[in-house]
Amino acid sequence: MSEHYRKLERMYHNIPINDFFEPTLSVEEGRAELEQPVSEKLHHAAGAVHGTVYFHALDNSAFFAANSLVEDVFVLTTQLDVHLTAPISSGTMHASAEVVHEASSQFIAESVLEDEDGNHLGRALGRFVPSNIELSPEIGYELPDG
After folding, report:
1. How many structural domains does the chain have?
2. Pick from 119, 121, 112, 53: nearest CA to 85
3. How far is CA 69 from CA 104, 108, 124, in A?
4. Could you tell me the CATH number of the domain that includes residue 99?
């Protein structure tokens, strides 16, 4: 099973949008942890991190917690309720997600976002469903060379 988690991590780290965000992700059974470094390029006009960065961290951590339990296909986010509770302008954002409900046709995962001191920044509860998109090397689902 850990091979599945490593392939999911590689798939995530190689998507083009992450060249901009520069996050790191680790996946285990029913859980995912995402670290998002904060820099000025992620700020809105008032000098704090833009809400899209919060959404990106919360959605992706919850998504990969859910996909850790599905080994054959890509899951899809069908609903994500996001609550932003505090701003951040420097340091690191940490999203910790876990699947809180599992059924044959859907997964519910919760993600909590904190700063490096453990201060709460936001929270999301999401619904994820299996798609018909196969997990394959064509979408980056593979182990690194060597």
Report:
1. 1
2. 121
3. 11, 12, 19
4. 3.10.129.10
The contacts of residue 145 (CB under 8 Å, 6+ apart) are none
C-alpha angle with apex 21: 16 to 22, nearest 5 degrees? 85
Q: Which domain holds residue 17?
A: 2-138
Q: Which of 14, 100, 110, 2 shows the shortest CA–CA distance to 61?
A: 110
Q: What is the pLDDT of residues 54-108, one digit of tens each?
A: 999 999 999 999 999 999 999 999 999 999 999 999 999 999 999 999 998 999 9
Q: Which residue has the tokens 């080994």?
A: 71
Q: Token match 């599945």: residue?
A: 4
Residue-wise pLDDT tens digits, 46-63:
999 999 999 999 999 999
Q: What is the pTM of this model?
A: 0.95
